[in-house]
Structures are given as C-alpha cells and as structure tokens.
Design goal:
single chain, alpha+beta, Alpha-Beta Plaits, DNA polymerase, domain 1, Dna Ligase, domain 1, 3 domains, four-stranded antiparallel β-sheet, globular
C-alpha cells in the first residue's frame, strides 16, 4: 500500500493562540517576545508585512510598533502548551497514526485514502482543526515526509492554494520543486546547503535529480535519504514513539539580577521541580544532575560562572529528592557579593523508570513517595501550575523573568477564565 503523509502545521501559532480569546487581534499586527521580553519570536502576517524581522530585539522596533500599532505580548507558555495539546488531540482523532513533530506541527498517516479524495480529506482536516480549536493550519500531502514538508511550506506561503496542497495529484510537481530553494528543504542545514551550492544544486528538483551515490559519498546516508525522499521513496516512517530525551534542561534569565542565596535557592528549586515533572511525563529517571549559576557577562561589576555535577545514589524523578541534591550543589556554588543573572539544571544519564535499581543502603520508601508526587501532579494539572509546591520554592517570585505584556492564562488558571454575561444587552 502506498504510504501517504500529511504534514499539518499551525499558522503563526503563538500569535494565533493570542487571537483565539481576543478576536479583536485578528487582522492586526501582533508579535510575541522571548524570555524577559527580549526579542521577537513570533509574528502575525500583518506584523511581517510591517517589516518586523524574526529575532530582532524589541527595543530596536519601537518606531514600527508605534507607527503600525503593533500588539506586543510576552510568551504565555501555559496557554500555548495547552492549545497545542488540544490541536494534537484533534489530529489524533482524524488519522490512525500521528507523529508529533513540534509544539505546532505533526505528521498524519493518510495511507489507504483514495487518491481522488486526498485533497478533500486535507481540506476537512484544516476546517475541523480551526472549528474545534480556533487555530488556522496549513496541510501538505505527499508520499514522503520530506515532500510533505515541501508541500506544506508552499501551501502556507502561496495564497492560491488556500492552505492545502495535495502534492500527489498535482500536475506540476517538478515545476514546484524547481522553484523551491534547496536551503529550505527539511533536513538541509548550512553545511549541506554550502555543498549543494558548490555542486550547482540550487533547487529541490536539482537535488531530486542528483546522483544519490555521490550524495552518500560526500554527505553520508542522510544526504542519500534526502534524494530518495524527494523521489518518493519513504526513508522516514511515522514514529509514534519518539526517543526519550537523553538530557533535560530547564533554565531562564531572572527578571532582575538577584544577590541573596534565598532568591537563588527559590529560582533554582523551581527549575528542578519543572525538570522532575518532565522526567515523570516521559516515564524516565535521571542518574545525575548539573546545577549552574552565572552573572551577566555584559554588565559592569564582578563576573562569576560555575557549575557542579552530582551523581545521584539512585536514579530518580522525585522532586523532593532532586531538590535535596540540587541544594547541596547550589550551596557549594554560591558566592556572596555577585549579582546573578541566570541559573539552571540539567539532568542526564536518563534511563526508563522500569530500569531503576536501589543502592545497597538506600532505605527511601520510593513507592510512598511515588504515590505522593502522583497526587501532587494531578492536583497541579487540574488546579494550575505550582498550586502545590515544596516550601523551599517560596511564595515570592520576584526573580521570575520579566513578562510585562503577558496575556491571561485563559485555559489553565481559574481566575483568568473568560466570563460571559448573557443578561447584558
């Protein structure tokens, strides 16, 4: 049976999330900023038309923001994550197999659908996702993942396709590939692009017609697979069980420089808590952790950066246990008299939960701890992030990153739930 893939990608995902609960933003220039409201990381089409570039520091575009009345938002991780989950759940209801590729895109397996019904099916997917979630998407259908990516990018960028391109039935496949720059192909990085340009391979069609053995000789099997996928040979099937992460890192710059150990302790243990949740979510345990702290290398005054690696006596994903060892490291790292800008944690040597082996003298009641943290996770999932937390994380969060333009947490915080007054005229 011929394999058929659909790559469904949310359009301007972050700004689209903001517009779901604030319809007045539709048709307006909107940007979302990075941590501490630093740089532009998402733009609506209107913001792109106003000349706002991706990654530009917000302080450099004050004039554009004022002239075009651009709506500026801080990154609302809770909102975007929740909407993403809703979108992916919708995808899963529309196809027998899906592979979540990122927060705003996924591959769907449409194998078995008749060729003359693929376009209609893709159009229905687009319409249903928008109706169920409010997020506009683009759909690219093709016999391989690489071609589906190409089709999706064309569908998104060219108005004539109205967000849907069925590459399988399109009569001018090679013409489309000839107009598609080789550097924009999924999997082509700077080094690959440089080699292709030296070899006069400038378009996707050029690469499709290239000598696959030569590509393998110079670029390895990944280069060969690029050629084969562009020819319609499946090298990357749907992966419903992506590999678990080998390392997990959580860190962030503080909203303002902090000096006291207590503030640094609260921030660092909050990051440890997030890492622990991620470990439990992928059913993994960490065998070692790295704690780091640093000052702002661009600011005036004394500079300091240091880290410490702790090997855990027993692999764990328990928040209390990870906090215990993280604080041992933090106390050794902390130096008074410095203004700290950032701290973080990296857990590594990750293994599956079922691979846990207790140390010889380990008398920790792990089953009891596991049941306790399960209850805490369930409450936080329903009531909101960190509703229940460890005391060492503290109630004072003045150290948190600057988010002066943060929208409400419409879907994850009871106090931010929209209220509709049906009695009001």
């Amino acid at each position: 049976m011929l394999k058929i893939f659909a790559l469904v990608d949310c359009n301007n995902f972050y700004t689209s999330c903001e517009a779901i609960f604030n319809p007045s933003l539709k048709g307006k220039p909107v940007v979302v900023l990075s941590n501490n409201d630093g740089c532009v990381i998402a733009r609506s089409e209107e913001a792109k038309s106003a000349g706002i570039k991706m990654g530009i520091p917000v302080f450099e575009i004050g004039g554009i923001i004022k002239k075009h009345k651009v709506h500026v938002f801080s990154t609302n991780y809770a909102l975007y994550g929740d909407i993403s989950q809703r979108v992916m759940t919708t995808f899963a209801s529309l196809a027998p197999e899906i592979e979540i590729y990122s927060i705003d895109e996924a591959f769907l397996d449409l194998s078995g659908i008749a060729a003359d019904k693929l376009f209609t099916t893709a159009k229905k997917i687009r319409e249903k996702v928008f109706r169920w979630t409010g997020i506009p998407v683009s759909v690219g259908v093709a016999p391989t993942k690489t071609l589906a990516k190409v089709a999706n990018q064309i569908a998104k960028s060219e108005d004539q396709y109205h967000g849907v391109l069925d590459f399988i039935s399109h009569p001018g496949k090679d013409e489309l590939l000839s107009q598609f720059p080789v550097g924009e192909i999924w999997g082509v990085g700077e080094k690959y692009e440089e080699f292709f340009r030296r070899s006069n391979i400038l378009s996707a069609l050029d690469l499709k017609n290239a000598d696959e053995n030569r590509m393998k000789e110079h670029l390895g099997v990944m280069g060969q697979r690029l050629v084969l996928e562009l020819r319609g040979t499946v090298c990357y099937p749907i992966n419903q069980n992506p590999d678990t992460k080998k390392e997990i890192c959580t860190s962030a710059s503080f909203g303002h420089p902090i000096e006291t150990y207590e503030e640094l302790e609260q921030a660092t243990t909050s990051y440890v808590s997030k890492v622990a949740v991620k470990l439990r979510k992928q059913k993994s345990l960490a065998q070692s952790l790295l704690i780091f702290i640093m000052t702002n290398k661009f600011a005036k005054g004394p500079k300091y950066v240091n880290y410490k690696i702790v090997r855990l006596p027993s692999a764990s994903n328990q928040t209390r246990e990870l906090i215990h060892y993280a604080l041992i490291a933090l106390k050794q790292l902390y130096r008074k008299g410095y203004l700290y800008k950032k701290s973080g944690i990296v857990v590594s040597e990750i293994i599956p939960e079922e691979g846990q082996q207790s140390a010889l003298w380990d008398d920790t009641n792990r089953e009891k701890n596991k049941q306790l943290i399960k209850v805490i996770d369930n409450i936080n999932r329903k009531a909101g992030l960190d509703k229940i937390r460890f005391a060492v994380q503290g109630p004072d969060e003045t150290w948190r990153m600057r988010q002066e333009n943060l929208s409400p947490h419409y879907t994850t915080r009871w106090s931010d739930v929209l209220v509709v007054n049906m009695d009001k005229d």
